[in-house]
Design brief:
By secondary structure, the chain is mostly helical. It has a single domain, classed as Growth Hormone, Chain: A. 77% of the residues lie in helices and 0% in strands. The radius of gyration is 22 Å and the shape is globular. The mean pLDDT is 86.
Amino acid sequence: MSQVNSELAAQKKSSDAKIAWYSGITKYQWIVLAVACLGWIFDVFEGQIFVASMNEAMPSLLPPGTEAATKDFYNKIALGAFLLGGAFGGVVFGILSDKIGRTKTMVYTILMYSLFTCVTAFARTWEQMAVLRFIVAMGVGGEWAVASAMVAEVFPKRARAWSLGIFHASSVLGTYLAIAAGAFIVGNPKFGWRWGFAIGAIPALLTLWIRWRLREPEEWVAAREAAKKDSSKETGRLLDLFRGNLLRRTIVGVTLAAAGLATFWGVHVFGKDLMRRDAERSYLRAANVSFDAPKTEKDAALKSHLPSIKKWEMLGMLLVTTGGGIGLIAFGPICERIGRRGAFLFFYLGGLVMSLLLFQTLAHASVTVLYVALPIFGFLTLGMHAGYAIYFPELFPTRLRGTGGGFCFNVGRIIAAPILFVSGWMQKDWGFTLETSTSLLSLLFLVGAIVLLFAPETKGKELPE
C-alpha cells in the first residue's frame, strides 16, 4: 500500500511540474499579490528616498562647513536608526499579525510608514531625522513580515516561490520611484529634498483598498480556531521560536538575513556612488582641479554642476537597482531548479566575487565599463533578498509564520545595523577609502554561505502547520 501511495505522490509531483505556476490562479489570489506588491513598493520607496537624498538632506541639517566625512557619519547614524526601527517593528507587527490577522496589521504598518515619512519633510536637526527614520522603519519592517506571510498562505505550493519572488522583486519599483524623486524633485532647486519626503503620504490611500478587498487567509483563521481549543497552539508566541526544531530554523533565518542586510547597507548601496564620483572627476578635470584638491576648492568647481552630478548618481542607482530587480525575479525559478539552499549559495558567493571585482578593479574604470558592471553587481548582491520572502514562511507553522518571518528578517536588521557605523568609522576615523571599506565588508557574504550548511531544504514541501 505504501508503495502505491509513493507512486501516486510521484505522479502528482510530476504532473504539478508540467503545469505553469500561474495556471489556475484565481482573481482574488492575484489581488492579494497586487496589494502585497504595492505595499512593498511604497515600503521600499520610504526607505530608499533617504538614500536618494541623504547627500542633500543631511548637510542642510548640520552646521555650515561641516566636513564631508562627518556628514557621512551622521548619514550612517540615520541609516542605522532605520535598520533598528525596522527590526523592532518587524518583530512587533509580525507577532501582531499572528494574533489579530494579516489584513488589519498591514493597514497599521502602511499608515505608520506613510505618515511619518511625510512628517520627515519638517525635520530640522539630524537627531529628528534619525528618530523619524526609526519610526518609519517600524512600519516598513512590519509590512514585509505581514505581506510575505499572507502571499505564502494564499498561493498554492507550486506557485509559492514564483509569487513570493515577484512580491519581493516589486521592491525595485519602489527604488525606481525614489530614483525619480531624487533626480527630479530632490535634485531640482525649485523643490528640494523635503518635497521628496512629503510625497511619502500617498501610500496611505492604499489602506482603503486593503480594507475593501482583502480577507484573512483560511490557514490563519484555522490556526486561530485551533489556538482557542488548545493553549499549546497559541498564535504569535515569540518564545516558541526557540523551542524544539524551530530553534535551528530561527538561527538559520536570522543569520541569512543578517548577512544579506549587512552587505546591502555596507556594500550594495554604494555601487551608485561610483557613477557620481566618475562625474565629479570629469567636471574637475574640465576645471583643471585635482580630485585630491582641498574640499573648498573642489566644492567651488562643482557647485554649478550639482544637479547634473545628482542625475549621474541616480543613473548609477538605476543601473544597480535594475540588475538587482532581475536578480530578485530570478531567485524564484533558480530555487525551483536547484533548491533554496543552492540558490542562496549562488548569490552569496557571486555577490562576494563581483563586489571585490567592482571595488578593487573596476572602480576607476571608464563610465562605459560601469554601465555593464553595475547591473551585474546589483544582480548578485541583491538577488538573495527574494529568498527571504520565499524561504522564511516555509520555515514556520501558520500560528508563528508572521512572528518567525518578521523576527528573522528584522533581527537581521539589528545585527546588520552596526555595519553602518563600522563603515562610517572606516572612512571617517580610520582613513579607509570607499573601495577598501566596501571590499572588506563584502566578506560578510561568506557568513551567509557558511550557515547554509545548517539550513533545511524546503523545496517542494507543503507549508508547516
